[in-house]
Amino acid sequence: MALWFEQALLPEGWRSGVRLILKGRSIDGIVHGVAPEPEDERHGPAFAGLPNVHSHAFQRAMAGLTERAGQGKDSFWTWREAMYRFVDRLDPEGLHAIAALAYAEMLEGGFTSVGEFHYLHHDPSGAPYADPAAMAQAIIQAAHDTGIALTLLPVFYAHANFGGASPTPGQRRFLHSPDSFARLMEALTPLDATLGVAPHSLRAVTPEELASITGLAPHGPIHIHIAEQIPEVEACLAWSGQRPVDWLMTHAPVDDRWCLVHATHVTDSELTAIAKCGATVGLCPITEANLGDGLFPARAFLAQGGRIGIGTDSNVEINAAAELRLLEYGQRLIHKGRNLLASGPDQSTGASLTRAAQQGAQSLGHPPAALAKGARADIVTLRRDHPAIAARCGDSLLDSWIFARAPIDTVWCAGVKRVSAGLHHARPVIEARYVKLLKALLA
């Protein structure tokens, strides 16, 4: 199969008249500066799809349901209580319906892989399902239905706060002992997904449990929520005398397999330590804004050679360009300047953001996303007749995608076209199933 693009972003830069030969899941050959051949499928500007390094798929169904002011100060913590009440209603069938819509929207929004931080394990009473992997299999089936590449990150969750505090009733569906979690990992090993592991947070695991759980993924990705909220930092200091990132760096062998999700509230020395060890910081700007988390010092981190990935977290909005746009705008508001995440003088901010986000694939157990021979054929094109990209070429196309909202046209994942004219091919079926579920859940 051959695809021809007016322009495409290759590892060496933008090229015109690019012809890609696909074979199976991969790119088998690339030539540029050529005219299309009669059998070629022809498209506008193309670039490699982005990895989504952090998703809680089920929270897609909560979007718009938590925006009513409470009696006291609303915060991440009051939102979390609403989330606990919502999950009481979900079973594997419902999780599959929600995740399928979320994953279809990710593909429509330019993401071609996802790291699913999966902690909804048990039935509504907190008892394991007869098949302890039933909820995880619903996630895997949703990924299969939509075609997105899945890195499954089963979450170990045992405690409500630092020091091994007893869990709350609202957390009952998430909980495991190290032994039961090891059995879950064993059940998941033969399933069709890249498998990592996710100690939920330093709040939710003891030091002994952290060492045990990370040992179950000797080669796979390791993801953890960390330093998302100021009260979390204060509680960690009270427990250990160290801030969360500082404690983790001191007590765990953090390396380039790790993804530190959010890491919002960090010191300069913690920032340097993360960059030095090669871990990815998983940033979710839309969710971090929605929950009032704060702003990660991305400008300083990238200046030190730090690696970032972009995630959609609560999936209140699913759009790769929107995440990147808010990441840059947040830095502009902090520093009162413009083009703050561009990689250097006269460099495109949109291209710098896109290339940085593509590097986040490392944290999902994949090589960096690229249109290169031998790479997985994950390809995104922009709508070539849209005014937002009129008369543009090269990096200005990515600037227009992110900042002028140029729409996505087509998306291939692992060599299969999943999105045409901006819509997932299975959207009608997926959407109808989701709407039916939501009407039942919210009745």
Task: Name its key features.
single chain; TIM Barrel; 443 residues; metal-binding; 34% helix; Urease, subunit C, domain 1; metal ion binding; five-stranded parallel beta sheet; 2 domains; alpha/beta
**CATH T-level topology of the largest domain:** TIM Barrel
Main sheet: which strands, in order across?
Answer: 5-15-16-17-18
Number of DSSP-assigned strands: 18
CATH homologous superfamily label of the largest domain? Metal-dependent hydrolases
- What Rg do the Cα atoms give? 21 Å
Describe the fold and architecture.
This protein is of the alpha/beta class. The protein has 2 domains: 2-48 and 377-428, Urease, subunit C, domain 1, CATH 2.30.40.10; 50-364, Metal-dependent hydrolases (TIM Barrel). Helix content is 34%, strand content 21%. It contains 14 helices and 18 strands. The strands form 4 sheets. It has a 5-stranded antiparallel sheet, with helices on one face. Strands 6, 7, 8, 9 and 10 form a 5-stranded parallel sheet that branches. Helix 8 (268-277) links the parallel strand 12 and strand 13 (280-283). Helix 2 (92-108) packs parallel to helix 3 (134-146) and helix 12 (349-358) crosses helix 13 (395-403). The longest helix has 17 residues, at 92-108. The chain is globular. The mean pLDDT is 96. Pfam families: Amidohydro_1, HutF_N. This is N-formimino-L-glutamate deiminase. Residues 6-44 form the Formimidoylglutamate deiminase N-terminal domain. Keywords: Hydrolase, Metal-binding, Zinc. Its cofactor is Zn(2+).
